[in-house]
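As promised in the previous annual report, we have extended the structural survey to additional targets. Below is the entry for trans-L-3-hydroxyproline dehydratase.
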Amino acid sequence: MQLPPHDGVELSVVDMHTGGEPLRIIRSGYPQVKGDSVLSRRRYVQEHLDHLRRVLMFEPRGHYDMYGALIVDSEIPEADLGVLFMHNEGYSTMCGHAVIALGRFAVDYKLVKEPQSPETQVNIHCPCGMVKAFVEYSDGKTGGVRFHSVPAFAFGTGTTHDFCPHTKQFPNVFKVCRINYSINGFPPDVTVEVEGFGNVTVDISYGGAFYAFVNAQRFGLDVNKSRTRDLVDAATAVTNAVKSQVKLQHPVSDDLAFLYGTILTDGKDDFSSETTANICVFADAQVDRSPTGSGVTARVAFQYHKGLIQLNQTRTFQSGATGSQFTGKAVEETKCGDFRAVVVEVAGRAFYTGVSRFVQEQDDKLTHGFLLK
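The corresponding structure token record, generated without further manual editing, is:
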């Protein structure tokens, strides 16, 4: 179908979803994104092209929980593509559900060299760093995708650790020190004052973006059964508390040192063959429909840090919103600055939902987009 005569530049997109979480991949219509790195290009779109994020993410073309990906050039020679992630509030540094979808997209739209069976590797340069995706490929068709994360680490945890020598030597150190430092890579406890709930102890972990983790039972909630509105309110209160009371740091770049959101869990962090559920509330109270790829990465990182799981122990993570599932496991120990870190493998499925061409007519007073809360 062709659009009738109109003014304004067309924006061409491919829509997908991963575990129910949408991804709008922008194919054309964006002006040149300037910068000498993916992180600098992220800053450029924030400062100069943010109106186009609102056009594509907000109503009437999108909705409050829309998510987007803009493909850009990468300064890393081995990267097949660079990408910027966008949502209702701004721009993320990592998005696992988007990486899973982009893996399929890159193979299907020939952004990589000749595909290989049974898997084709796609190197995706995200603002947080290089993420390696592995796309099932057979008889010309793509399937499931797994990816290896950037180094993921526990930044601050809600419990002390028996295996940490400093716990016995300095029994009060984890109670008095704040989150902005750690001893030999062992982060201190983190307790924040949450409006309406009092003192709440949280885990803070990095999986390409920083998240706070809390057992939903702390608020009398169940991630699988409680009203979404109640879960959002509790998670948002935690996010606001952590942002105001905890100073985050990242060894690589200050651009990465921000809290992306809060993930409420069912508390089942010990390794088990049983599925464990969580729900992620990020950006401006946006609810992830999937188990959250970067969230699974961060959750596996702090589970490994606490000794609750070992390398190559696969867990299944379920979205409390839709019931969709990812698997995740720590596959390699590494370092990120002074932090003990792990590379996490996350796997899931993404599906195409359609293609669209959007326009902005000059006399449309709502053309720049709006949101209803």
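The radius of gyration is 20 Å. Confidence is low (pLDDT under 50) at residues 159-186. These points will be discussed at the next consortium meeting with the crystallography subgroup.
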